[in-house]
Amino acid sequence: MKKKLCLLGLLGIAVACSPKNEEVQDEQVTVAPPTEALDSIANTKKDGVKTDENDTDPTMPMPPPVMQLLTEQYPGWEKPTLTEEAREQTEGDLQGPTLVRGDFNGDTLQDLALQLQQDKDLVVVAAMQEQENLYRLYEIKRDILFNERGNLKSLYYLYLVEQGEPLQTEDANEDVEAVHDALAIGIEGEENIYIYENGSFTPYSLNR
């Protein structure tokens, strides 16, 4: 079912695996800085989203170049433990809550985004496939992990907003469609969508 998305204003906001024996050139490892918000969108997430032949659990195989970049850029990274509330938010979805795959820039190459734990931090990272098996990392969000009775857990969940989602701008009473797949990040019922545009991810607030 299509959901309506309304644009509003917002400030931008941003497991352990051994490396592969491949060398990665410096230009392949560029990490983009967090971006700033331009507008906001209202929406409720989809119950089902598209996926591919790979399991969406980060402990399962991801492309080796992505694993290499993550190991280099986030030493000691691991899959975070989610709170029960965060896990429940994407029950019934085909992707999430820790990893989603989609085409975030419309080049027909599959990209992915995941949340990872590095020390006491929770980090959400997108891996954009610029050419076949050539990726660039974008750090989208960073926060401190929630301490639940001595156990560090993530309050966040991810899901995919598919290409073609109907959008309604606040300034114009006309419908447009999401040009590409987009990443949605939620925490305790508050959700933000991150759209790749002009070389970076722009966050928009989501209101149910």
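Next protein, fold it too.
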Amino acid sequence: MDYKIKDFFKEISVISKIEGLRFQDISIDDIPGSANITKQNKEFQISFKGIFKYPADGKLDINLSGEKYRVSSGTLKQTRFWSEIFDNVKGELTFDIKSMKRGDLKRNTSFRMFFFDTSKRKNLFHFKLESPKYDEIIPWAFDCVRITLDEKRYDIIQHQTTDQSYIIIENLDQVSYRDFQRDSYAIQKGIGYLVGYMPGGEHYIFSGLNFEYYRLARESLKSIYYPVTRNPYSFEFSNDYKNTADSYKEILMVIPSTVISKFVQQIRDNEEFSVAIIFLMEVLHLKSVVSMPGAFSVVLESLADIITNPSKIKTNLITDKNLATEIIEELHTVIDKYSTTLDDESVLKLKRRLSALNSPITPRRLTNAMKLREPFDQLGIILSSADEAAIEYRNYLLHGNILMNTDKPRNSEEIDIHMMYISGKLYTLLSKLLLKNCGFQGYVINHAKFFDSKEDPKEIYFFEKV
């Protein structure tokens, strides 16, 4: 079978031309004078000599090598300190360029967005995300993921040339320019979380040879974790676990495109969910041992509010009234059995609590402990005792115990390892929630296992079933 391969030569040629600008002479419409433009790494500037007239909209129309472009900059507007006495004074000025465009993309419906890939990772999607099969219609790419948002298909590609790697987002079905921008931002965050790298910073959007260059305030984010792999040999196991990788070889799976699509769709449609994911990525990028447990706890609480369906909260734990009465009576008997070892007041208060044992649960009055566990219950995710303990560490943080110290003395190294263990545990729990909520039924990486105590191990598995 002859494969039709995706071709990015024309777009990359334009990018190379712009990126290679070095003091290139330009002319500015309606503003006589001497000007040049330079693009070197992240520095993109126009230098001007003459009498400059500030445009009202902060945009300049320039002529570069016989072609028209429009550039914008936050420094192209007069400040409130400007005086008219400077209007006809010659000077030398330099402006930072925020955006540059050729043509009008708003009239088009097919787009390609190019990010500079700074992940330093080859085959970014392999063993993590499902790749599309070649259908003899849509051109193929080796490192590619295909998702669907509101019935519109998108390809996300890692494309490498001899000297540069790109992350490219391409729509396969017609969309408006506005929708493409909105969808692409959701794709950035969604794919970023799932593979541990979110592209950012400078990017180009093309439609044919018309394009827009733009520089985002948020640079690319690189995570120390990612939730899923199909390759158990991605990790180095000690001699004690030399057979572990082989045991997982046949059961691990990539994240299906349907799950990826639903995950990105939720990011696009729910602003609170979107903010939670970007917050999670920013903290993971910082790799702060001290910050991660607290930040993950905050995200867990946010997701509990987003994922929990109030109508599914079980308000009556025991629906059979006769059974409820029988259980409470037996518990009274148990307390009476040990009453000789308790004082009278304790016995009385324990029995009073029993009377409310099966009282209806009001969704609006869930305790924090119940609220954090509710989404796991609704999704059918069973929490181990180690999971429960990790969730409880939220209370340490709320009461100012940032290092999560207990009565057991620890040195600095032991504190760091313990915090990495809790971070890994909470990240794994977050991954289970996020993926199971989108229909995933596979194994996630149990990052806590890699930081588990050898003297007092709490984790059994390197990969856990969702």
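About the second fold: Residues 105-222 form one domain.
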